[in-house]
Write a structure and sequence with these properties.
It comes from Cryptolaemus montrouzieri. With about 130 residues, the chain is mainly α.
Length: about 130
Amino acid sequence: MTEMCAICNQKVLYSHEVILCDECEILKHRQCILMSMKTFRNISESKEPWKCDPCNTEVNAKKSTKEYSIDDLMEKLFEMDQNCNRLFTKYKEQLQINERIQNELSATKKELNNQEQMGLNNNIIVNGIP
């Protein structure tokens, strides 16, 4: 059985400049995928696997999606729970500090009002003197 180029559907001869995708294992003419001769030679001489554009896109899409195991998710959930507890503790501490400051402010206002009243009590108002 003769193989065909996946792009142009022409017969592939190994005397042609042909490249095989290591992922999908489909043969393609160098010219059909618009590959330069220099790139073709570099890939041919290299021992690195070559992937066509559709396979590269699939691989990159897989890399961009994160996969988590249940253990990973449980660990992240536990960390989030600890962070929430820590924040809740800080929140309660801040509420106590705010309440204490409000009580001190209220006491200071009362003391100031009492001192003003005492100052007014010591004043003498004289009427009718020319």
